[in-house]
Amino acid sequence: MLRRSLILFAMLALSAGMAFVGSDANAMARPGPAGVNLGGPIHLVGPATQGVGGIRHADQSTNWSGYADTSGRFTRASASWTQPAGHCGSGQQFAAFWVGIDGFNSSTVEQTGSEVDCIGGRAEYVAWFEMFPGPSQNYSNTVRAGDHFNATVTYNGGESFTLFIQDTTEGWSHSTNASLGSAPGLSSAEVIAEAPCCTSSGGILPLTNFGTVNFTGSTANGEAIGTSSLGPVEINMINNSGQLKDSCSGLSGGENFSCTWIRSS
What was the pLDDT predicted at 39? Predict the structure, then answer.
């Protein structure tokens, strides 16, 4: 991703033992804005509240919104979405949309998705994958507002994952095999809109005005993400004053929802 694909971090992560096996030739690290570090797991804040409609509870986070399953061992997560347009003002803003395993109650995240960043008043779009705490890797393919994405993260055993992403509008796809370099937790599966982290001071980056993003077919282990036995949790993104940064709908059919931007920070 633009905000956190620093070649230096890639070198450090590789030297620490994280390996990409069979990664596509079109995956590339791209330098991010000055002072931007890697992202990572959810930043939970405040007490959980009672969920409704089969949702176990609702949590507040400063960087994630959407839904996560948290009960069981998760080996596959999938979702589809349409890339929203970025509405850019002054300064830099960032927003990512992804499907992944881990990160809700573990220190690793295995994920793939798309992004819209506002750089110099201009919206820039990219697709990527990440094996956190390693660096994100951008794909060099064209991404535009309105593109339709399908994505799946699959655990292969050991430390190995396959991260699949397909842009059906532009007509490209990638299936990347990657090794985490440590034992994964496999403790959650999620479909997320994210305000990426972090600045050099550790703060969450401003959230791009993305309008509304629609997620469909959100599943974990082949079941709808809202399946009660999977322990579904609603996640609401808030700022430091407790105000919502975006608002996500309830689940339709247990697997479809939308998130609408409210404020950058």
Answer: 62
